[in-house]
Amino acid sequence: MTPERAAYDVAILGGGPAGSAAALSLVQVRPDLRVVLVEASAFDGWRIGETLAPGGRRILEGLGCWPAVVDAGAVESHGTVASWGSEEPYENDFLFSARGTGWHLDRAGFDAALIACVESAGVEVRRGARFAAVAREPDGKWRLAIARGVERREIRSALVIDATGRTAAFASRQGAKRLVDDQLTGVAVLCRFDGSSGTHEARTLVEAQRDGWWYSAAVPGRRAVFAWMSDADLVRQDGLKDRQNWLERLRAAQLTWKRFERCTPDWPVSIWSARSQRLHDVCGEGWIAIGDAASAFDPLSSAGVIKALYTGKLGAFAVLDRLRGLSRGFDRYRRYVEREYAEYRATRARFYGEERRWPGSPFWSRRTD
Ligand SMILES: Cc1cc2nc3c(=O)[nH]c(=O)nc-3n(C[C@H](O)[C@H](O)[C@H](O)COP(=O)(O)OP(=O)(O)OC[C@H]3O[C@@H](n4cnc5c(N)ncnc54)[C@H](O)[C@@H]3O)c2cc1C
Description:
This protein is an alpha+beta fold. It has 2 domains: 7-75 and 105-181 and 276-351, FAD/NAD(P)-binding domain (3-Layer(bba) Sandwich), CATH 3.50.50.60; 184-273, D-Amino Acid Oxidase, Chain A, domain 2. The protein contains 11 helices and 21 strands. It has helices at residues 17-29, 56-62, 66-71, 107-120, 169-173, 232-237, 243-251, 254-260, 304-323, 328-353, 362-368, and strands at residues 7-13, 35-38, 51-52, 75-77, 80-83, 90-92, 102-104, 124-126, 130-136, 142-148, 151-162, 178-180, 184-192, 204-209, 212-219, 223-231, 264-273, 277-279, 283-284, 287-289, 295-296. The strands form 4 sheets. Strands 1, 2, 8, 9, 10, 11, 19 and 20 form an 8-stranded mixed β-sheet that branches. Helix 1 (17-29) runs parallel beside helix 4 (107-120). It is globular, with a radius of gyration of 21 Å. The N and C termini lie far apart (52 Å). The model has no long low-confidence stretch (mean pLDDT 93). It binds flavin-adenine dinucleotide. Flavin-adenine dinucleotide binds next to helix 1, strand 9, strand 13 and helix 9.
């Protein structure tokens, strides 16, 4: 391990929307803070989670990043069409979320634009650097091992914000337990519309089926994502990681198939964990988890990104309190995440309860019984 003297007030692990919102909120209030953001990727791969719910714009304007997001290609979206509870599709302004205009994002471009915004605000950003190990020093500071390829460096920080997404890489090393509600999995393909195939419908389409549901949503750059959402065991049992099986399943969903027929898929299919979960404890002595690391929602909610942004802000305020020697911020944040997750579960149960066409299906009965 290469020794390094760098010492920080706050180290943020993970540069998704949660990590970026936290970094920006910290330096907006305390520009004097030494903040580092460590991000494993270079934002060069496809990222899922392309619909920004209404309300996202206001948060991003407050963080000073909305122009950068527009430049990265956000496209207005006017809600969702759903075949849910009946074959007849109906208009639904974002299944869980408030009414208004949302946006379709190229998530890699969106996340990269936010990180550039973070850097412009004076935060040190380390891209392609993965948080790999942690130890506590006698003075209570964290010693973090950061890996870049085979090279490892150490940094020291008084406080850590875990924004590593669903893996909660730091919190899990602190023994934080994950409470998991289901095994929802996304099996997704990105599809391109060429010049002759017309523009993809701007609204998200959700189509319920016996063993799960499809969603398709436009992505800037004349592309769309098509994802089959079902439980991990059902995906495995039906071999849906296989292109032919996936296509066959899609053919049975008439509305979604009609959209898909006009585009050229980028194979292979990719698999994403989409289970609902939260940490039993979202903060501990000297650390706090935000975004998906703290709690992760069903994509039906279209709320993951907006939640990442505002828990990033709330987490940052709790950290600012802690830096002033106050513990109330952590306590308040802990209660907030618990209450929000309980409300989310109730809403989710209500939405799944609206689909009663397949009472014998394991997928639906697991969510309604
Ligand atoms: C199939 C599917 C569809 C979805 N659709 C939507 C949608 O339409 N709208 C919506 O709002 N949400 C959607 N979501 C949810 C949304 O993608 C997430 O809620 C959101 O990305 C969470 O943001 P985050 O910053 O907390 O975590 P992430 O976006 O997961 O970011 C975590 C970051 O941490 C980095 N990282 C991980 N480990 C380390 C490490 N050890 N060291 C350093 N960096 C690390 C990662 O590279 C990544 O950049 C969807 C999710 C799925 C699975």
